[in-house]
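The instructor's notes for this session suggest beginning with a concrete chain rather than abstract definitions. Hand out the sequence below and ask the class to guess, before any prediction is shown, which regions might be ordered.
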Amino acid sequence: MGQYGVAEVVVNRKHDPRVPDTVCGVVKHHYKGQSCQFSFWCDGKPENPSGPAWRQSQAVAAAVLDDETVFVDGALYYHAEFSKAKFFNGLEPIVMIGNHIFYRDKPRK
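After discussion, reveal the predicted structure:
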């Protein structure tokens, strides 16, 4: 479920006017001065996907891109539970999946 949640965050962000409007653009985007939103993209390791994990990620991506899932209900952000990032203080928590907490912007009053 966590993979679906992260994939949904990417798709949700792609529809947000504050970020690029493509999946690749979202993944590579530097948000609010942070160097990287998705650790795999900036970990310095070559991207050579293969094997069962790659096939699973392709299935997850296909399902989310086809609007077949809703695990995080509009979330634009997430982080690991152990992270104490202050950035998330002003956001509305939606759901916890595994050790990741998913958030969306709080409605404006």
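Then share the key points. Residues 51-65 form the longest helix (15 residues). The mean pLDDT is 86.
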